[in-house]
Amino acid sequence: MSGEDVLHAEELLRKLRKAKKDVVGLSAVSSLLLAVFLRRILKPVEYLSQGSLRVYESDMMVGVERTCRKDELGVLQNLYADMLKKLKSIMERQKWTCCQGLNRACL
């Protein structure tokens, strides 16, 4: 091998090391962005799941807040909040009607 070949090989090695560092850096940034993205998606899903579980267990005191999000999860959350509000209203009317029909004081 000539001196020129050695210099060329060393230059290629330096470029490979730099490329390796770049790939590692991009991987770290990509992983961080993916974690933030998944958190943004999973947090509202978890919130609605917990609310649904409480309603399933007959806990009508659960409150699901409306959100200003405009994506599909925001629409779902707002519809769920409206549905829960309407369901509570229907249950209150049913309770009132039942109490009136029995001529009793409502509990």
Q: Can you describe this structure?
A:
The longest helix is centred in the first third of the chain and has 54 residues, at 3-56. Helix 1 (3-56) runs parallel beside helix 2 (72-102). The protein has helices at 3-56, 72-102. The protein is built from 2 helices and no strands. It starts with a helix and ends in a 5-residue tail after the last helix. 79% of the residues lie in helices and 0% in strands. It is rod-shaped and about 105 Å long. The chain has one domain (3-80). By secondary structure, the chain is mostly helical.
Q: What structural class do the secondary elements suggest?
A: mainly alpha
Overall number of domains: 1
Provide the helix percentage. Answer: over 70%
Low-confidence region ranges = none
| Shape designation | rod-shaped
Oligomer: single chain
Number of H- or I-type helical stretches: 2
**Helix-strand pattern:** HH
Largest sheet: none
The overall pLDDT average reads 87
Based on DSSP secondary structure assignment, what is the total number of beta strands?
0
Task: Tell me the Rg in angstroms.
Answer: 30 Å
User: Strand-residue fraction?
Assistant: under 5%
Distance between the termini: 97 Å
